[in-house]
Design brief:
Blueprint (H helix, E strand, L loop, with lengths): L7 H24 L3 H23 L2 E2 L9 H4 L2 E4 L3 E4 L6 E6 L7 E8 L3 E4 L5 E4 L2 E9 L3 H16 L3 E10 L2 E9 L9 E9 L2 E9 L7 H9 L2 E3 L1
Antiparallel strand pairs: 1-7, 2-3, 3-13, 4-5, 5-8, 6-7, 8-12, 9-10, 10-11, 11-12
Helix pairs in contact: 1-2, 2-4
């Protein structure tokens, strides 16, 4: 019988709890002196961790859809948080997840997939769905533009630990500027071979969009990503 894979939401929650407990243990003497500063530091660590997890898990989804409801799967217009609307016009991409579990921390996650899923055992030993390609979007809503920029920089740095970057450029899509990187993976635990990612800041919002694929996927990832970004509207 096929094992039901744990959702990305579950894994993210478990890792965040682990990091917070470790950080509290190591830095407990300082927490009482600067609780607000420590809280911000812990949140920054957790956000960076989410990006790393999503990068390692890109292309993988739980055995059943993680979307909030079934209508999201076929809907072209997808609301991410209260600040971003995505109108997916690419028929190759199907919405498979739209999570707001971490909305209290201003974080939102959604993903789209191309191709039919195949069972795959991930690094945690769970059987998940592996697609030909997967696009994921991570949106952070922060209190200021400076905080959004700092977190975008942190996300980009975290992503670089999983990338072998072959190209980097600045692009403008639908009036919004992004830094776009093209790369291959050297992480043996990642079932994907190459990808392209965009990092951007819009006022107090930080956004990361990553599209990765398996070795035999022949579509132009850069073209797919730019098309997707041109259909992102910030409210």
């Amino acid at each position: 019988m096929r094992q039901r894979g744990k959702s990305i939401e579950y894994i993210i929650r478990k890792v965040i709890f682990f990091i917070e407990e470790k950080a509290k243990t190591l830095l407990r003497p300082r927490i009482r002196k600067a609780p607000l500063k420590m809280k911000k530091k812990l949140k920054s660590i957790c956000i960076t961790c989410i990006l790393c997890i999503a990068s390692v898990l890109s292309g993988c989804s739980s055995s059943s859809s993680d979307s909030n409801n079934d209508t999201n799967v076929t809907s072209k217009d997808v609301q991410i948080g209260g600040s971003l609307t995505v109108r997916n016009t690419d028929t190759r991409l199907k919405l498979i997840s739209n999570l707001d579990t971490l909305s209290a921390d201003g974080l939102y996650y959604a993903s789209w997939a191309a191709g039919s899923p195949e069972p795959y055992e991930n690094f945690a030993g769970d059987t998940v769905d592996l697609y030909d390609a997967q696009l994921y979007l991570l949106l952070g809503e922060f209190k200021s533009s400076d905080a959004a920029q700092q977190n975008t920089d942190d996300w980009f740095t975290a992503g670089q630990t999983n990338y072998n970057i072959t190209a980097e450029e600045n692009v403008t899509c639908n009036g919004q500027s992004y830094t776009v990187v093209t790369y291959t993976f050297d992480n043996e635990e990642n079932p994907y071979e190459r990808g392209v990612s965009a990092f951007g800041v819009h006022q107090n919002l930080a956004v990361c969009v990553e599209l990765t694929c398996r070795e035999n996927y022949q579509e132009d990832l850069y073209e797919m990503l730019v098309t997707f970004l041109n259909n992102c509207t910030y409210n």
